[in-house]
Design a protein that fits this description.
Blueprint: H1 3-6, H2 9-12, H3 18-27, E1 33-34, H4 46-57, H5 70-84, E2 94-97, H6 99-111, E3 117-122, H7 128-134, E4 138-143, H8 154-160, E5 165-170, H9 183-195, E6 199-203, E7 235-240, E8 253-256, H10 259-272, H11 278-290, H12 292-316, E9 328-329, H13 340-351, E10 353-354, E11 356-357, E12 369-372, H14 377-393
Helix pairs in contact: 4-11, 5-11, 6-7, 6-10, 8-9, 12-14
The structure holds 4'-deoxy-4'-aminopyridoxal-5'-phosphate.
Length: about 400
C-alpha cells in the first residue's frame, strides 16, 4: 500500500510550516542565538506555576466542563470586560480551548462550507491559511506593506470581497510584523463587515504587548474591532495565555462570541478535545486575577529590547519600521541582494544567528526577515554584533 495515497486530498496541498523546516536546521547546530521561535524567554511567573502545583496537590486531575471551568470563564469575562471593554456571558459566550491554535481551528471549522472565502492579511501567522484550507475554505490574502507600517487598508479588503466571502480574519498586533492597526482603519473594516454581512475572527493574542509613549515604556491603548457598533454580534474574539503571561506550554486560550457560535465551536471541541487541561485552567485563573504586575514587567522588558534592536538596525543601515506591538521586528533586508531565505540560511551558517525568512509568513514577506526579540538582552546584543559582521561582508 502506498501510504502517501492514503493521506486526504485536502491535506496534501498544505506545506509544512516554513518555520519548522528552518528550526530543524537550527537544532542541528551548536552555539546558535535564536531570534527565531515566537515565544517569551521568560518562564511563566512563579505565582502562576504555584497555582498549577497547588491544583495538582489538591488532587484536581479530572476533566472539566467542555467549555472550561466556570470559575475560569468568569475570570475571563471580567478580564475581557476590563481590558477590552466588551462583556460576555461566562455561562454561554466563552469557550476555553487548547491555545488560540485550537480556537482558530474551531472557528474556521464551525463557520466554513466548502468554497467559502476568508480574507486575511499577509504577512501573517503561519497557521492562518492552513486552518482555512483544512476547514475546506478558500484563503484570500490581502497584502500589507512596509510603507503602511504593515497596517491593513480597509480599501484593500473591500477589493477582495466577493459573493463567496464569509469571514475577515484579523491579527493585531501582528505576528510576524509587530504591526498595530490604526483605530480609524479598524472602524472602516468594521463598517465593511456590517455592510457586507461578514463574520470577523479577531486573534488578539498580543494585545497586552503594545508600546506607547516614552519609547514604548508606557503601554499603548489597544482597540479591538469587537468594540465598534454592530461588531459584537458578528465577531469571534480569540485570546490566550501564551504570550502576555509567558504560558506557551500550558496550551490555553479562549474564544468569546455570540452563543450560537460558541455552541457550534463547542460541538467540535467536545468530540475532538473534550476539554482543556484542568491544571492549566487553574494556572490561568491565577494569571487573570493576579498576573498584571508581572505581565507589565515583561512588557517593559520587551520594550527595551525592541528599542535596542531598532537602534542597532538603524546604525547598521537596515530599514525597519517601528513595531507597535508583539515581540517581533520585521527588518527589510532586500537591499543586501539576497532573498530572505538565503539571508536567513547564510546568517545561520556563517554567524550562528537564527532569524525566520519573511516568506514563511506569505509571499509578501520576501525581502524581510522576522526577528523575535523575546531573547535575553546580552544574547540579543551578541546576535546583533554577529548580524553586523555578516552584513558588512555582503
Ligand atoms: N496566533 C498568533 C498570531 C500567534 O503568533 C500564535 C503563536 N505563535 C498563536 C496564535 C498560537 O498561540 P497558542 O499558543 O495560544 O496556541
Amino acid at each position: 500500500m502506498n501510504l502517501e495515497d492514503q493521506i486526504c486530498h485536502q491535506l496534501r496541498g498544505i506545506p509544512r510550516s516554513g518555520i519548522r523546516d528552518f528550526f530543524e536546521l537550527v537544532q542541528a547546530k551548536d552555539d546558535v542565538i535564536s531570534l527565531g521561535v515566537g515565544e517569551p524567554d521568560f518562564a511563566a511567573p512563579w505565582h502562576i506555576r504555584e497555582a498549577a502545583i497547588y491544583s495538582l496537590e489538591k488532587g484536581e486531575t479530572s476533566y472539566t466542563s467542555n467549555l472550561g471551568l466556570l470559575s475560569l470563564r468568569k475570570a475571563i469575562s471580567k478580564y475581557v470586560d476590563s481590558y477590552f471593554h466588551v462583556s460576555y456571558d461566562p455561562a454561554k459566550e466563552i469557550i476555553v480551548t487548547v491555545g488560540v491554535s485550537e480556537a482558530l481551528d474551531l472557528a474556521c471549522r464551525a463557520l466554513l462550507n466548502p468554497g467559502d472565502e476568508v480574507i486575511y492579511h499577509e504577512p501573517c501567522y503561519v497557521s492562518y491559511s492552513p486552518s482555512i484550507v483544512m476547514a475546506y475554505g478558500v484563503a484570500v490574502p490581502v497584502e500589507t506593506r512596509a510603507e503602511d507600517n504593515f497596517a491593513l487598508r480597509a480599501a484593500d479588503v473591500e477589493k477582495k470581497i466577493t459573493d463567496r466571502t464569509r469571514v475577515i480574519m484579523l491579527n493585531f498586533p501582528t505576528n510576524p510584523t509587530g504591526a498595530v492597526e490604526p483605530p480609524e482603519e479598524l472602524e472602516k473594516i468594521a463598517k465593511l463587515a456590517v455592510e457586507r454581512d461578514l463574520i470577523v475572527i479577531t486573534d488578539e493574542i498580543y494585545s497586552e504587548i503594545v508600546y506607547g509613549e516614552d519609547n514604548g515604556i508606557i503601554p499603548a491603548k489597544h482597540t479591538s474591532i469587537v468594540t465598534f457598533p454592530g461588531m459584537k454580534e458578528r465577531t469571534i474574539f480569540l485570546h490566550g495565555f501564551s504570550k502576555a503571561f509567558a504560558m506557551t506550554g500550558f496550551r490555553l486560550g479562549y474564544a468569546c462570541a455570540p452563543h450560537v457560535l460558541t455552541e457550534a465551536m463547542m460541538k467540535i471541541h467536545q468530540y475532538a478535545m473534550l476539554c482543556a487541561p484542568i491544571t492549566s485552567q487553574a494556572a490561568a485563573i491565577e494569571a487573570l486575577e493576579n498576573g498584571a504586575p508581572m505581565m507589565e514587567e515583561m512588557r517593559r522588558s520587551y520594550a527595551m529590547r525592541r528599542n535596542l534592536l531598532l537602534k542597532r538596525f538603524e546604525e547598521m543601515g537596515i530599514p525597519c519600521f517601528e513595531p507597535g506591538g508583539a515581540f517581533y521586528a520585521f527588518p527589510e533586508i532586500g537591499k543586501f541582494g539576497l532573498s530572505s531565505k538565503d539571508f536567513a540560511f547564510r546568517l545561520l551558517e556563517e554567524e550562528n544567528v537564527a532569524v525566520v525568512p519573511g516568506t514563511a509568513f506569505g509571499k509578501g514577506g520576501e525581502g524581510f526577515v522576522r526577528c523575535c526579540y523575546a531573547t535575553a538582552m546580552d544574547q540579543l546584543e551578541e546576535a546583533l554584533n554577529r548580524m553586523g559582521r555578516f552584513i558588512s561582508r555582503l
